[in-house]
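name: query_chain
kind: protein
chains: 1
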Amino acid sequence: MAKPKPEYDRISELKAFDETKAGVKGLFDSGIKNVPRMFHYRPDKLDKNSSVSNGIHVSIPVIDLAGVKEDPGTLRNIIDKVRNASKSWGFFQVENHGIPLSVLQDMKDGVVQFFEQDLEAKKKFFTRDYSTKNVAYNSNFDLYSSPAANWRETLFCLMALKPPVPHELPEVSRDIMIEYSKQVMQLGCLLFELLSEALGLQPDHLKDMGCTQGLGMLSHYFPACPQPELTLGTTKHSDNDFLTVLLQDHIGGLQVLHQNQWVDVPPTPGALVVNIYS
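structure:
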């Protein structure tokens, strides 16, 4: 008589994975052929709706910020576009936002360099203590509470209100993290001005409320997956900050929910995706 299969012990699998501090990159490097069960999503949770609704292709608005500080007419036009996009979508892309393409590329390269360095170098930043750490590396912040883990690992850095001192940041990507966060903070201040005016308020209204004081940087890394049909890199979610500025790499996969329809957001060179909390 065959022995009954042992009951699946999810907690033990999660702990064993977490204690390696190697994340999904460690699983990829080990050459595994089968995705561990802790990453499996039920088939009904792997809904991959197309971006085409009723035969009509839809895409999030793209707003060109060129001339926003130079011409009052251009400014009014941009404010109208921000208002409409925020009201109807909650998402839009911005072009000619002032951040050099070289900085965007260096930031993407810096993320890859951090996650692809030796494990011992990354382990120094491994923690699940977000309350006292400005810099935290791990795989899945909600590893022990989510129904299934995402095939992803993340470096979190609190760059403002209380920024880390330079030596607290990973050496391999330190300089570009500081420069990129400085540039994004400037863009964020501009976006808050535009949103304030789109609401019929004074340009500094949201800034005076403190909306521009904090800045958190999340750098995600998605290693190749041997069975991508069984899991997801990032599940559906709502960002919990006021404003998200997202830099995509060339691979894509980002979708946003619009009128109960998942819409693809293909990577656009030089563009940044803006997500307004709602």
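note: Helices lie at 10-20, 23-30, 72-88, 101-115, 119-123, 174-198, 205-208.
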